[in-house]
Amino acid sequence: MPYGILIAEDELIERMVLKKTLVKQYGDCCEIYGAANGKEALEIFRKQSVQIAILDIEMPGIKGIDVAEIIRQESEGCCIIFLTAYDRFEYAKRAIRLRAMEYLLKPYSEKELLSVVEEALRWVDKTARAENFPDSPELQTEEPEEYFLAEEQSRLSVMVSMVEEYLRENYWKDISMQDAARAVHYSDAYFSKMFKQQYGVNFTAYLTDFRIEEAKKLLRRPDINIKEIGGRVGYEDPTYFARVFRRVTGQSPTEYRMSQIL
Questions:
Q1: Is 61 helix (H, G, I), strand (E, B) or coil?
Q2: DSSP 3-state of 7
Q3: Are 3 and 52 in contact (CB under 8 A)?
Q4: How does residue 193 score in pLDDT terms, banded at 50, 70 and 90?
Q5: 189 to each of 8, 20, 129, 196, 201, how far by Cα in Å?
Q6: What is the mean pLDDT of residues 144-159?
Q7: The pLDDT of residue 146
Q8: Dihedral angle sign, alpha carbons of residues 206, 211, 216, 220
Q9: How are strands ordered across the β-sheet holding 30-35?
């Protein structure tokens, strides 16, 4: 059964571009639904099987943030991704409380978007496995820390050092932005904002690039089986690893290895 992805965006051109991007990338495994406003979004959500909701926070009528409130009341498992041109404190707080997976500030890149959607699909799979196999480890559901500011440059420098150390030691594990934020003792919202400010991309996109760079190093070693490499950089599913690797590099893992040998 294909995944259901809901796009709620009131700007027609943005909605069309977003839908075209997702159909091109995931059309073989996903049903992509478009909504021009919050009312349409809720109608589609209640009529179709939707596992991922991509919502523009500011829309006429029912705002995306309010749609998310209703979706969360009706579905604990739906993965919510916010799109917004407004970097507002109150929105960030509500997004965290709703356990939104990501808060993408416009203009975002296609690379950022696809990284987040891929991560959402992975979490959907993980949730499904947890439901089918109750003895498996549960997803984190604890409430995030209180949002706070500390924007001094020295604090930012410390955060960067801690994040890079955390990634080096944990990139191969099943980690998320929330895990990284807690590891360096920051609230999710503050960490997300500071990370994007420092690196120019969100945590998910950066982690993907970090993993692929590590995979390249391993692929240059002919003594390591390609099937093992995905697992060693955080992708247990070889097919998923190959798909991400090709999207980032334009080559399959095998093609990349051959290009390094020749």
A1: coil
A2: strand
A3: yes
A4: confident
A5: 22, 29, 28, 11, 15
A6: 49
A7: 33
A8: positive
A9: 30-35, 3-8, 52-56, 79-84, 102-105
